[in-house]
């Protein structure tokens, strides 16, 4: 698959103060809901170093259509519901990967 076909979703999650560890645990324990999707290429959870209680979730998909199918599914609503009690705000950005270069450390 070429990088230009990869559909990327980035979620910014503001978590209630003091709930970060619980959010991370629930996210981790239910991550296979996303990675088990046939069109999912992988996902990452990152914690901001610049903003308190902010997390970023990045997931890559084979194409937008199959992501949107999952987004409208009952399985997605259930997954989102597990994370909702910890979240105070959130935004989503979607994009296509245009170029990707593997760094020296990854090639070693």
UniProtKB/TrEMBL annotation:
One Pfam family in the UniProt entry: ABM
Residue ranges of domain ABM in the record: 7-95
Domain of life: Bacteria
Keywords: Monooxygenase, Oxidoreductase
Coiled-coil zones: none
Signal peptide: none
InterPro entries linked to this entry: ABM_dom, Dimeric_a/b-barrel
GO molecular function: monooxygenase activity
Protein name, as recorded: Antibiotic biosynthesis monooxygenase
Species in which this protein is naturally found: Streptomyces morookaense
Lineage per the UniProt record: Bacteria, Bacillati, Actinomycetota, Actinomycetes, Kitasatosporales
């Amino acid at each position: 698959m070429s990088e230009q076909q990869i559909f990327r979703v980035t979620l910014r999650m503001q978590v209630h103060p003091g709930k970060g560890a619980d959010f991370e645990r629930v996210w981790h324990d239910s991550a296979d809901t996303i990675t088990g999707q046939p069109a999912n290429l992988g996902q990452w959870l990152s914690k901001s170093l610049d903003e308190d209680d902010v997390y970023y979730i990045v997931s890559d998909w084979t194409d937008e259509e199959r992501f949107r199918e999952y987004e409208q599914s009952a399985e997605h609503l259930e997954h989102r519901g597990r994370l909702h009690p910890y979240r105070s705000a959130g935004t989503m950005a979607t994009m296509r990967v245009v170029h990707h270069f593997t760094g020296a450390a990854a090639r070693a």
